[in-house]
Design a protein that fits this description.
The protein is α+β, with helices and mostly antiparallel strands and 761 residues long. 28% of the residues lie in helices and 21% in strands. It contains 20 helices and 36 strands. The strands form nine sheets. The chain has a nine-stranded antiparallel β-sheet with strand order 6-7-8-9-18-13-12-11-16. It has a seven-stranded antiparallel β-sheet with strand order 1-3-4-10-17-14-15, with no helix packed on it. The longest helix has 21 residues.
């Protein structure tokens, strides 16, 4: 009896102890979410980014071959090394890259030969810490990062041949061993474009144990004699140690885009810190950023998805600036190759991130976006243009002039303390020019757009209809900023007029957007399901809704609310048929739409991601609630295949973060967030200004996706949007959820969100 009692008390004690374990936000993050991806099908196209928020340098285990954009695939069996990376996506590939790899009893360099089997069961992957067991060598590798440095810790078996490889990659690199400092220095030049001729990433590696010997690697060959020339096409080094079983050897690593001297300066981030301290500091940094949002809800999977997407939303754009010995902010310019004062951020494509990622920064992390805006001033001064896709400099990919939205939304949301006049000048410059070498920067086809009101289909400018629609929205953001800056009336009126250019592409016959020839006739033949051609990574069913600033204008063109809603409904009712003749094969975005059983809705690509919220503009908000929750529930999980397409530098993640809150920024540049369906029972958002936003939906669960009643600060609220300033002032939102739609709430025109067409009515 006594034994049973003791056992019972033991079990109860254990239960209580477990019940008292408090998970912090970072504990819910899966950095492997989205890593089960490949060229043919993206489930995120992510890699496990071991980093601090917005850090200059990331680290990742490398399963792919050198130069492969799919640097880490969840279904891989072997690790080739641990790579410093600045890769924003596999499509953009990498720069500033080199790798470190431990091995035992082999003096080899070849990445195929040195690769070791590993298992996810012997892998710990957290934002601030990574550990994996390399089975072929009986070695455990651990990594913990800072903004510009990291500490590696290798646990070796007993051996006289414990080796660590430093691989600076091909395309021109340098590695030099300095035995008296237990150090290795070098640089790597391998990149995928967007860099000046003098581009180098300088690195230093310092071990806490002396080498027994070392080998130089030149042109990917291990030399029998030490070399007096550190440079070659593909340089590296192998350093040797003698170890006891379980012995831990640490390596402190840092890099700089500026110089060796600055790399040594950056190493000070970890110089006098041990591994556990850096690990603890990294955990604290992530909890501080992720902890801006507190969630009270019993659904742990939703928590995991939320914090994993918030983690992805706070990685990019990354810092591209450094801090010199005097404490000055400096950066290597990826635009002119000079070392200059001031902030610089990079690795983002505004075509993606203007939609939700930058609005998220403006709401939750405005101090970060202030630095980014200062960096944009420097980009314009150094290159003559605002970026549209930067990695690290201007890159020739995607379309549009969405830097205008990013600049305007920040200022209109209240950010100050930077040179907005220069940024406005840069915006205007971008409407009248195109970069001489990178046609995706500025406005390709501006001559036609500014005279005809559209970019014609038949003037050999691809994706012309998409360009027209995005330029029109960009013009509206310029119009809004021009008003805020008290620019001349003629200037304000010009951009207000141009914001209506979307009308020029509307085809009454199809109730869809359609390419238009220079003579004013529509393109013919016209296939609404044809991807590419007049549109960008999508078809007319996707791009027709890209009238962010004037849904009412689009409603009027379609013949009223009923017809508009019918067209929205049709997106989901249609079969996922597609015309891939422009590409010649089904690109991965097409395949991702096809397999989701959601008709023509292609959430894995950005152009249509806001579309579910447009029901709010036509008096049927319950359908926005239904589809927002459907997308969250069906297309996102915290698993390696947890996305439904490209994650794209935080945009697809930010969509989820906003949608889980219960609203979404359909039109950046406006002060409204459009209502959807809040996901959690209680969410508390701690704003940078010290105010608190609280969103309560008691009893919320998977079956309750409809808003039955909505209160803002204790008062019944019927509008289909909430205002930015109301949130920033601190707000309490109480939502009663139901399994049945409330078809009387939010149906009056006075409840509808902003549209330009209603501005002066």
């Amino acid at each position: 009896m006594k034994l049973k009692l003791v056992l019972l008390l033991f079990l109860i004690g254990g239960f209580v102890a477990n019940a008292q374990v408090k998970h912090e936000p970072v504990d819910y993050v899966s950095i492997l979410m989205g890593t089960q991806s490949k060229f043919e099908l993206s489930n995120g196209n992510t890699y496990p980014a071991i980093a601090v928020p917005w850090g200059m340098n990331f680290w990742t285990p490398q399963t792919g071959k050198m130069g492969d954009g799919w640097v880490y695939r969840y279904d891989a069996d072997k690790i080739r090394g641990f790579k410093q990376t600045h890769q924003p996506s596999p499509w953009m590939n990498d720069y500033g890259q080199f790798s470190i790899m431990p091995l035992v009893d082999k003096t080899i360099f070849d990445e195929e030969e040195r690769a070791s089997w590993f298992s996810h069961k012997a892998e710990i992957a957290k934002p601030y810490y990574y550990s994996v067991y390399l089975a072929d060598y009986d070695v455990t590798t651990e990594i913990t990062p800072t903004e510009r440095a990291a500490i590696f810790r290798f646990t070796f078996p007993e051996t006289a041949n414990a080796n660590v490889i430093i691989d600076a990659f091909d395309k021109g690199s340098s590695v030099e061993v300095i035995p008296d400092k237990n150090a290795i220095i070098g640089y790597t030049t391998r990149n995928s474009g967007g860099v000046p001729d003098n581009f180098k990433n300088y690195f230093v590696v310092v071990f806490d144990k002396s080498f027994t010997t070392h080998f130089d690697v030149r042109n990917a060959q291990v030399l029998k004699k030490l070399s007096d020339k550190p440079e070659s096409e593909h340089s590296g080094a192998i350093v040797k140690f003698s170890t006891q079983r379980g012995e831990k050897i640490s390596a402190r690593v840092a890099s700089s885009f500026i110089s060796y001297e600055q790399a040594w300066q950056n190493l000070k981030e970890v110089e006098n810190k041990d591994f556990e301290t850096v690990k603890s500091d990294g955990r604290k940094a992530w909890n501080e950023v992720l902890g801006k949002v507190e969630i009270e809800d019993s659904n742990i999977d939703n928590k995991r998805t939320f914090y994993s997407t918030l983690y992805r939303s706070t990685l990019f754009p990354r810092k591209f600036y450094e801090i010199d010995a005097k404490g000055n902010i400096i950066h290597y310019s990826p635009y002119n190759g000079q070392v200059l004062p001031g902030f610089m951020y990079t690795d983002t494509g505004f075509w993606d991130t203007f939609r939700a990622l930058f609005p998220l920064l403006n709401l939750m992390y405005p101090s970060v976006n202030k630095e980014i805006q200062e960096g944009l001033v420097n980009t314009y001064k150094e290159s003559g243009f605002l970026p549209e896709w930067a990695s690290p400099g201007h890159r020739g990919i995607m379309i549009g002039n969405n830097s205008a939205s990013v600049v305007a939304d920040a200022y209109l949301k209240g950010l100050r303390g930077y040179d907005i006049e220069t940024l406005y000048k840069a915006m205007i410059h971008g409407t009248e020019n195109v970069h001489p070498k990178v046609s995706s920067t500025g406005r390709l086809g501006h001559e036609y757009y500014n005279t005809l009101g559209y970019v014609p289909y038949d003037v050999k400018i691809n994706e012309n209809a998409a360009r027209t629609l995005e330029y029109a929205y960009a013009d509206w953001t310029i119009y809004k900023l021009a008003k805020a800056l008290n620019r001349p009336k003629s200037e304000i009126d010009l951009y207000a007029k141009r914001s209506q250019n979307y009308r020029n592409l509307y085809s009454p016959e199809h109730k869809l957007m359609r390419g238009k020839n220079k003579d004013g006739s529509f393109q013919s033949p016209f296939s609404p399901t044809k991807w590419g051609d007049a549109f960008t990574e999508g078809n007319s069913w996707h791009y027709t809704w890209s009238v962010f600033h004037d849904p009412q204008g689009l409603i009027d063109l379609m013949g009223g609310n009923k017809e508009f809603v019918n067209m929205l409904d049709s997106v989901f009712k249609m079969p996922p048929v597609f015309d891939d003749s422009y590409y010649g094969f089904p690109i991965h975005e097409i395949r991702e739409m096809q397999i989701m059983n959601m008709g023509q809705y292609a959430h894995g690509n950005q152009p249509i991601q806001h579309m579910v919220y447009l029901y709010n503009y036509a008096g049927e908000p319950w359908k926005a609630q239904y589809w927002a929750r459907e997308v969250m529930d069906k297309l996102y999980t915290p698993a390696p295949d947890g996305y439904c397409g490209d994650e794209d530098n935080g945009q697809t993640s930010a969509w989820y973060v906003f949608s889980a809150m219960g609203f979404y920024p359909v039109c950046p540049g406006s002060d409204e967030y459009i209502l959807g369906s809040p996901l959690f029972e209680k969410m508390t958002v701690h704003l940078e200004n010290g105010k608190t936003l609280q969103i309560n939906s008691p009893g919320n669960d998977k079956s309750k996706r409809y808003i039955s009643d909505f209160k803002l600060n204790g008062k019944t609220y019927t509008k289909n949007y909430v205002k930015h300033q109301d949130l920033m002032n601190g707000a309490k939102i109480d939502v009663q959820m139901s399994d049945k739609p409330n078809k009387t709430r939010g149906t009056r025109k006075s409840d509808f969100p902003y549209s330009f067409s209603n501005e002066n009515k």
